[in-house]
Design goal:
The structure is a single chain. The protein has one domain. By secondary structure, the protein is mainly alpha-helical. It has four helices and no strands. The longest helix is centred in the N-terminal third of the chain and has 24 residues.
């Protein structure tokens, strides 16, 4: 039972991280300068396009460097 609770707690924390990432990336105040700065930190062009998905952003590790 303890393992299940720990698993659910980690799953909830991951979900909250993703929600925070969505809130930041969907901020209408973001301009190209912000995308350029985030791209420089992560080392990949993050400027959104038609193929941009939350899954891709998570795979890039944005949830780990979001505070920068």
């Amino acid at each position: 039972m303890h393992d299940y609770i720990s698993y659910k707690q980690r799953q909830g924390e991951s979900c909250l991280d993703n929600i925070r990432l969505v809130q930041i990336l969907c901020n209408p105040a973001l301009i190209q300068r912000h995308w350029d700065e985030m791209s420089e930190i992560i080392g990949v062009d993050l400027t959104p396009n038609a193929g941009t998905t939350l899954r891709k952003m998570i795979k890039l590790g944005l949830d780990d460097v979001i505070e920068q």
